[in-house]
Amino acid sequence: MAETAVLTREAGAADPGLAARLGALDLPAGGFTAAARKAALARFEKMGLPRGRDEYWRYTDPAAFNAAVPAPLQIADSGPDGPLFEDIDRLRLVFVDGIFDAEASDDPALEGVQIDTLAAAEGQADHWAAPVYGTLEAAGHDRVARPFGALNTAVARDGALIRVSGRPARPIHLIHRRADDGADVYFHHVIVVEPGAEVTVLETGMTGARSNYVIEVDVMEGARFHHISAKRAGYQKLGWGGIFARVAAKALFKSFNLSLNGTLMRHEAVIDIVGDDAVAHIAGAVLGDGKNGDFVHDDTVFITHGAERGESRQVYKKVLKNGAKGVFQGKILVKPGAQKTDGYQISQALLLDENSQFLGKPELEIYADDVKCSHGSTTGAIDETVLFYLRSRGVPKGRAIVLMVLSFLADALAEVEDEALREQISERLDAWLTRHA
Amino acid sequence: MLKIDNLHAKLEDEDKQILKGVNLEVPAGQVHAIMGPNGSGKSTLSYVLSGRDGYEVTEGSASLNGDDLLALEPEERAAAGLFLAFQYPVEIPGVGNLTFLRTAVNAQRKARGEEELSAAEFLKVVREKAKSLDIDAEMLKRPVNVGFSGGEKKRNEILQMAMLEPKMCIMDETDSGLDVDAMRLVAKGVNALRAPDRSFLVITHYQRLLDHIQPDVVHIMADGRIIRTGGPELALEVEKNGYADILAAEVG
Ligand SMILES: Nc1ncnc2c1ncn2[C@@H]1O[C@H](COP(=O)(O)OP(=O)(O)OP(=O)(O)O)[C@@H](O)[C@H]1O
Ligand SMILES: [Mg+2]
């Protein structure tokens, strides 16, 4: 594991921004997480805040993430949509400004799963989550500095700790709510899917002014993990999030992320395939409308194949209008010996006007000779021929464009295996697109 | 039904005149054929009538049952009863054929102030019509035209036409690329739609289709104009002698 963070600032250079950033935070002492928090803080201080010249921050200005406190704001609601997945039988865990709300949540008893929360378990000297907390996040710095991940491990007070030993009948639904529009929210989930177990984790809702989340997922041998995140954002919201996953032999990891609105959103995904015959898919659908102010959405993905016959897929689709900016930085690293790796990456942007832009940085780094890896990145506008075809059949222009956008997003959405869930997301997209037509 | 008067159209971005004064009238209930050499402007005429971007009408008019077609958006022309079966049907990945058909049918019904079809009613009708065109359930589920063979795409156009029940059907080379059996199916589909209040404008290069769909009138188009109009025998003449004599007569 990369205990030594790779990227370090010039020795001794004091970073006033860093001091201010830390000064504004209340650092928990931690119980079973104490050592991890301490190490994370040291990592963070060593790495410093990201700067525009850092390799993976060239397209996205980190200033708003670096600021000591988020700008105070009143969040304009992101739309009339009600909560997602309402009619699906699931176990709800509610977090308000990043803090677990037991009253608002379901009874966490569910066969095949043990659910704890970080704040409640913290006092224990030892906990099953201890070997994972901060460990996968730290490993994620192997080649790329992820200061906000380290910061999260150091300061997050709460989050879900989910240990799956069986195949729970219901998905677990993490619901985020906001109490304070101006809140600077941190939460940290740890999910361990034990050998042969399987779970679906849903995430929805909305947090305050700025959020920072880390999800660490340990998918053990033969286990299956499905993650569907459709968090809402107010138009002014800032968000950074990182999912750090370790995928063992014959295991499956699947994560789909829907993003609507927001001012500046960055999702980092670091997925390590450590066992043979494992599968890791990560997908994202982003809809950005710059009408209400800035919109920058950045997905930065790093998948490492460290074992044989692994299959990975990255499928990212961004629909941008009114000056919205989309960024995708995706990397596939195939380590020596990871033969028969099948790595695939596609990032596509549909620009609905000429003011919007998409910046893509696909990367392959391969140290094994018998592998199949490909990547593609495209930027395009609405296809006038298709638009005319639809209109000539009587479909009004606005509706035709919605259909075309949904068609553009279809490959990303297809990564949601469950048909009922997929259908609900599709309806949500349809409603958003219709409103923003 | 369809009345085209001295229609001139050029490319929007270029100084290229394509339609140079088309005069054509298709009365209700009739089938008219348009033949003519490659590049004479047949597809352009069909696009200008259905409202495709990229062309500019510089002179003349076109109306459907008295409505000024040129003033309408493409979807309004469709709702008014105009249908174009494309020479090159378009693929729409990610949109299922059924979803597409239902969206189109209901959009038109809505535009006309009619009740939308329920899912069950729609399915019943579409299955029946698809069957008569030898389009199976599989094809109905697949994304619109994606991976369809040339002939399948053309049959899919006729299915759309059958579902939308337009008043004025323009078919641009629906027969090209069809095998003998598919041609029969398409002709059968068209003939089943023939009605006193429905007209057809069939663009084709071959007599073959016209053997099955008897036209009332045949027009020859060349260099952006209708240069000759006659009965079904005109198509036979073209089939036998090509366009040389007709073009020569026009010039002379
Ligand atoms: N968008 C366009 N850009 C450039 N040229 C065009 C365009 N549309 C039509 N043309 C030109 O206009 C002329 C008429 O084309 P059109 O497709 O209408 O012919 P057609 O009679 O349908 O031919 P065919 O029998 O080959 O289908 C051709 O010279 C064609 O190249
Ligand atoms: Mg043509």
What does this 3D model show about the protein?
- The complex is a heterodimer of chains A (437) and B (252).
- Chain A has a ten-stranded mixed sheet, covered by helices on one side. Chain A has a nine-stranded mixed sheet with strand order 3-4-6-8-10-12-14-16-18.
- In chain A, 20% of the residues lie in helices and 37% in strands.
- Chain A is of the alpha/beta class.
- Chain A has one domain (2-382).
- Chain B is an alpha/beta fold.
- Chain B has one domain (2-250): Rossmann fold (3-Layer(aba) Sandwich).
- Chain B is built from ten helices and twelve strands.
- In chain B, strands 6-9-10-3-11-12 form a six-stranded mixed sheet, sandwiched between helices. A four-stranded antiparallel sheet of chain B has the order 2-1-4-5. Chain B has a two-stranded antiparallel ribbon with strand order 7-8.
- In chain B, a hairpin with a 2-residue loop joins β4 and β5 (67-68).
- In chain B, α4 (119-132) packs across α6 (150-164) and α6 runs parallel beside α7.
- Chain B is globular, with a radius of gyration of 18 Å.
- Chain B starts with a strand and ends with a helix.
- Classes of the chains: A alpha/beta (437), B alpha/beta (252).
- Adenosine-5'-triphosphate is lined by residues 11, 18, 36, 38-44, 54, 87 of chain B.
